[in-house]
Write a structure and sequence with these properties.
The longest helix is centred in the middle third of the chain and has 17 residues, at 55-71. Strand 1, helix 2 (55-71) and strand 2 form a beta-alpha-beta unit. This protein has 96 residues and is of the alpha+beta class. The protein is globular, with a radius of gyration of 13 Å. The chain contains 3 helices and 3 strands, in the order αβαββα.
Length: 96
Amino acid sequence: LNSANSVIGYEIITEGLLNSSLVHPREVFRGAIVASCANIIVAHNHPSGNCEPSKEDIAITKKLVEAGKILDLQVLDHIIFTGKSHLSFVERGILN
């Protein structure tokens, strides 16, 4: 996102296995830094159709938020998509 929080690009960071995906802040923020982004929104899918975030989803989100603070790149939201629905961490009150 640019300084007006308009989308200026997107990047696929990783493609997971059947029920997991490895995510590291270094890879998440690399493209945002190169593109001079002001903020980011993180998103991933749950092929199972269940939008509920796992404890791993919540843990990596907290880690990304903390890394973003150090880099001065705010994580504005984390969205989980399924084939029929979505869940926003901000709307759910998980990401403050």
